[in-house]
């Protein structure tokens, strides 16, 4: 039985005071939840959030670099994130791929480094609207999954979460419907089975992301292959985020 995981990706939002106020309240409101709850906050807030001594909410970062240290201005290492109390890190988000031109080879190096230091990667995969219209969705997400997980061992794969985020649905108000998302996620799980075997593939949690709200979370969580959500805008509001978690 896969434990559902609801992760909030705050992107470039909230200063430290705002972050502390919301996460302190969130931790109390979801204390009895049966799902795993993660907040992926900006780097600037992670230390302060870790200091809260959270009982339920786990911390994640939104990105990292694969080198241990060095002359990489503006970057953060996996060990720095682990040191500040992070358990998760989002890697390969479409905004990193699209805006910052990150490619699968780089993302794979990050995944491997995260696992090496004990961080759990949330590997994002997803197609553009043009790719979807061309009927390339499955080809794209399977390729991104396979390349992103190159050289990940069978012992490590259970620590990985995959997030299917159709790029055309992120921040647009548009969403995939539950059946379509489930079909794509089933193809991701089939790819995992080819890489790691059916038993291990059945243990990997795969989220849906893309304009998830309290009003549509049921549609996705009713699907057998979907194990949670990677939530953007709705995770910035404690009432909305709690509504998604408590569903």
- The tally of domains stands at 1
- What's the end-to-end separation, in Å? 18 Å
Radius of gyration: 17 Å
CATH level 1 name: Alpha Beta
| Sequence of secondary-structure elements | EHEHEHEHHEHHEHHEHEH
The total count of helices amounts to: 11
Question: What's this, in brief?
Answer:
It contains eleven helices and eight strands. The chain is α/β, with parallel strands linked by helices and 247 residues long. The chain has a single domain (5-246), classed as Alpha-Beta Barrel (TIM Barrel), CATH 3.20.20.
Could you describe the 3D structure shown?
With 247 residues, the chain is α/β, with parallel strands linked by helices. It has one domain: TIM Barrel, CATH 3.20.20.70. It has eleven helices and eight strands. Strands 1-2-3-4-5-6-7-8 form an eight-stranded parallel beta barrel, surrounded by five helices. The longest helix is centred in the C-terminal third of the chain and has 19 residues, at 178-196. The chain is globular and about 45 Å long. The protein starts with a strand and ends with a helix.
Keywords:
TIM Barrel; eight-stranded parallel barrel; 8 strands; alpha/beta; 247 residues
């Amino acid at each position: 039985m896969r434990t559902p995981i609801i992760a909030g990706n705050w992107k470039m939002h909230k200063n430290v005071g705002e972050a502390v106020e919301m996460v302190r309240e969130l931790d109390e409101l979801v204390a009895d939840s049966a799902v795993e709850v993660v907040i992926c906050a900006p780097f600037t807030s992670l230390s302060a959030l870790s200091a809260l001594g959270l009982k339920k909410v786990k911390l994640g970062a939104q990105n990292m670099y694969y080198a241990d240290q060095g002359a990489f201005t503006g970057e953060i290492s996996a060990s720095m994130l682990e040191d500040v109390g992070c358990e998760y890190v989002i890697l390969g988000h479409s905004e990193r791929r699209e805006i910052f031109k990150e490619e699968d080879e780089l993302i794979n190096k990050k995944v491997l480094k995260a696992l090496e230091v004990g961080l759990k990667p949330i590997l994002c995969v997803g197609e553009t609207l043009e790719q979807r219209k061309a009927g390339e969705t499955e080809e794209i997400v399977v390729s991104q999954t396979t390349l992103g997980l190159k050289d990940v061992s069978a012992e490590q794969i259970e620590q990985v979460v995959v997030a299917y985020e159709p790029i055309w649905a992120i921040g647009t108000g548009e969403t995939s419907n539950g059946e379509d998302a489930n079909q794509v996620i089933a193809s991701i799980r089939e790819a995992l089975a080819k890489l790691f075997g059916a038993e291990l593939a059945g243990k990997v949690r795969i989220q849906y992301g893309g304009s998830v709200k309290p009003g549509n979370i049921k549609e996705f969580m009713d699907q057998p292959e979907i194990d949670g959500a990677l939530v953007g805008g709705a995770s910035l509001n404690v009432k909305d985020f709690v509504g998604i978690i408590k569903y």
